[in-house]
Amino acid sequence: MENTHHPNGAPWRNFYGRFKGKTLRPAQIEALDEDLERLSVPNVSWDVNPDRTELDLQALFGQKDLWLEIGFGGGEHLVYQARSNPDVGFIGCEPFLNGVAMLLQKLRETPFENVRIHPGDARHLFDVLPKASVSKAFLLYPDPWPKKRHHRRRFVTQEHLLPLYDVLKSGAILRVATDIPDYVRQTLQEVPKAGFEWLAEGPCDWRTPWQDWISTRYEQKAFREGRGAHYLTFQKPHA
């Protein structure tokens, strides 16, 4: 039988995407060197935590509710939410090093004690998050993988959605924003299949931004290129 795990016990998980883009500026390198380790979620790595012991969220955030942003890009939305909700703990997942550096620079300008970062694949974080621990999750302008043969690489597949469902609390909210109509189609097919309920009652519910929404640089780029946004709200059913 083919070995499906790394020598350290980690499952083989294909990651499709970039870990690093254009050359980092000196200030970004400094932020990564000086701040990333301190602000990273501990014990996510398989090398450090091969037994996949659950995270001690109380040690990280005390009694705060936990919100999760999957793929925070440049960090605009994450910083905005953290500033607006000081009584909530935030974990931002982002494997793209340039995005992590951008967020760290923003946190230097406006420090928050309620933000932690996982600079890697969200699936590894799902391994160690306690079940039913997250109150709200955000998937905002994820990589669209526009070619049909690449649609299985999108986040909205059962490989990602089922473990996300497990770490969400009963009644938790999942927000998805995208400017790609075909991503909307796949989201509306796959997210309910994982157990979520779509909360829309009419067109205004997916055409109108959430009241606490801040438009990101990705959304502004979509608007400049003539693409509209879709704001999809799902809920994990109450037990």
Structure, described:
There is one protein chain. The protein has 239 residues and is an alpha/beta fold. The relative contact order is 0.14. β4, α6 (158-167) and β5 form a beta-alpha-beta unit. The protein is built from 9 helices and 7 strands. The chain has a 7-stranded mixed β-sheet with strand order 3-2-1-4-5-7-6, sandwiched between helices. α5 runs parallel beside α6.
Any key phrases for this structure?
9 helices; 7-stranded mixed sheet; 239 residues; Rossmann fold; alpha/beta; globular
Task: State the CATH architecture.
Answer: 3-Layer(aba) Sandwich
Distance between the termini: 39 Å
User: Strand arrangement, largest sheet?
Assistant: 3-2-1-4-5-7-6
Order of helices and strands: HHEHEHEHEHEHEHHE
Which spans have pLDDT < 50 for at least 5 consecutive residues? none
Biggest sheet character? 7 strands, mixed
Taking Cα atoms only, what radius of gyration do you get, to the nearest Å? 18 Å
Helix % is: 25-40%
Which helices and strands appear, and what pairs or packs with what?
Elements: H1 26-39, H2 57-61, E1 65-70, H3 76-84, E2 88-93, H4 97-109, E3 115-118, H5 122-128, E4 134-140, H6 158-167, E5 168-178, H7 181-193, E6 197-198, H8 204-207, H9 217-224, E7 230-235
Helix pairs in contact: 1-4, 5-6
Compact overview of the structure:
The chain is α/β, with parallel strands linked by helices and 239 residues long.
